[in-house]
Amino acid sequence: MSNLDLRPVTKRCGGNGRTGPVRDVQPGKQVPLGESTLVRRLLPNLGRRMVGAWCFVDHYGPDDIADEPGMQVPPHPHMGLQTVSWLHDGEVLHRDSLGSLQTVRPRELGLMTSGRAIAHSEESPRDHPRLLHGAQLWVALPGEHRHTEPSFEHHDDLPVVTGAGGLTATVILGELAGATSPGTTYSPLVGADLALTAGTDTRLPVDPDFEYAALTISGESEVDGVRLAPGSLLYLGCGRTELPLRAPTDCALLLLGGEPFEENLIMWWNFVGRTQDDIEQARADWVRGDRFGTVHGYDGPPLPAPELPATPLKPRGRAR
């Protein structure tokens, strides 16, 4: 996925302290993605930049694309992060500069590690299902791994945890309730898709050293007593050993968590770096056609790089 804003705001991200349990509903904003997809951008936002190493969250759909091209995101670069593609409905065709070609379907993990540099495109296949609904997320790579070799993984058999009272959890990344995803991670984190049947009233064991957020994908959920409409993100902080969950209706939500990220970062356009030089070099390399490679097979030109802001890019921690 890409940030298609031609005037991207500098995101000063990173760690600096932990918070206890909180209940903070984070506002999202509507952002166009590609030719015909509108997404709700939930991270980063005015109140919060990261949840653990999770640094970018878009939620889209459900959209009726029967007579539309659907998602069409041209080739674009990434550096210093992992991308996570997660669908509830539809299909997304992934291509990248390693030569990967993979269709990602509902509840399958498409995981791309950019490391030092990679480029990819994402599109709805020409013959695609009627609905498109899912989330696209980024995970910031810690300093010791940010220059790792790029890679792509596709996992179509993820572990599932069933709980009391109508809870089913698919572990996307990391570990939850003793089940571990096969996806590669570089910092302590978790991502899980929680499905709750109407009337569910349960408690999910969680790690008190992790901070968490919950994103309602469909239906209405109640997380730690807070009612959430679809597309709402609730930041929960740290210090919990369990998370109360209720389902007034059938619903699904994403649980994102991890140890608070203790590094200062700059996130600009599709890059996560540590210094202004990191970002300037990455942009220059993309413009020149160096380092990121070529995505073959996409019907259209790659995304042009936006201009850098006039003000200096400074790495910052979590606290404003």
Question: What labels would you give this structure?
Answer:
single chain; mainly beta; Jelly Rolls; 8-stranded antiparallel beta sheet; 7-stranded antiparallel beta sheet; 1 helix; globular; Pirin; iron; Pirin_C_dom; Pirin family protein
Can you offer a commentary on this structure?
GO terms for molecular function: metal ion binding. The structure is a single chain. With 320 residues, the protein is mostly beta strands. The protein has a single domain (11-258), classed as Jelly Rolls, CATH 2.60.120. The protein has one helix at 276-288; strands spanning 11-14, 24-26, 29-33, 37-43, 54-64, 72-78, 81-89, 92-96, 101-104, 109-113, 118-123, 131-140, 151-155, 160-163, 167-176, 179-180, 189-196, 201-205, 211-218, 221-223, 226-228, 233-237, 242-246, 251-258, 264-268, 271-273. Strand 20 (221-223) and strand 21 (226-228) form a beta hairpin. The protein starts with 10 loop residues before the first strand and ends in a 32-residue tail after the last helix. The model is unreliable at 11-17 (pLDDT under 50).
